[in-house]
Amino acid sequence: MRGLPAAARDVADAVAAFRIWLMLAHTDVKQRYRRSVLGPFWITLSAVVSIIALALVYTQIFKVPTAEYLVFLTTGFIAWLYLSSLVMESCSVFIGAEGIIRQVNLPLGIHVFRMVWRNLIILAHNLVIVFLVLFYMGVGMSWATLLFFPAVILISLGAVALGYLLGGLCTRYRDIPPIVSSLVQVMFYVTPVIWPPKLLVGNEHLLTFNPFYYFLELLRAPLMGEAPAADVWVISITLVVAFAFAATAFMGRYRWRVAYWI
Question: How many separate domains does the chain show?
Answer without folding.
Answer: 1
